[in-house]
What does this fold into?
Amino acid sequence: TQLLEQSPQFLSIQEGENLTVYCNSSSVFSSLQWYRQEPGEGPVLLVTVVTGGEVKKLKRLTFQFGDARKDSSLHITAAQPGDTGLYLCAGAGDSGGGADGLTFGKGTHLIIQP
Amino acid sequence: NAGVMQNPRHLVRRRGQEARLRCSPMKGHSHVYWYRQLPEEGLKFMVYLQKENIIDESGMPKERFSAEFPKEGPSILRIQQVVRGDSAAYFCASSPLFLAGGNTEAFFGQGTRLTVV
It folds into this structure.
């Protein structure tokens, strides 16, 4: 059973469209982090959300942490080809007593076509 | 401030050999985490270390795998008698504080891609 479920798993859209990626869990996390990973590289941290209901913006990216700290979403406005990549959500300090590291979802493979 | 440094970037080993993967955390970070990533799968937690101590190794196979983070020098992930199934990308991350506390962040290295032939 995957502790963190990400959806969709794959998404291919045209440049200029908007999209939302979801990260859901039955566990409560003390924080949740979003990473972006490109082929052959390590994950690069985009944002950390800590407080339930928190919203953070990073240029055209908007991140939200659910009120109960069990889920999160990433919304991209006017997607560009440079946004193409694997987006990973990762939770820390889950209430399910998981490992002390981050628990990752399987990721969303995003392709933005010119 | 240099990021998390991993070496080698690529490592090829024959079945039965040993693989040693190194990770130097970011300056000031005393918490190190190792993850394994297989194609089309997410990153799987292996082990969490703090200087000279293994804090949580619940994700690490009990045989052939070991990890250390000595007082001086990089953290080492060691895989003895490698098998083809060990082929994967291994990532190291570091943080200045305990992740589960919620008020810190983990930064990743570029990974070591291990291929067992």
Summary: The longest strand of chain A covers residues 85-92.
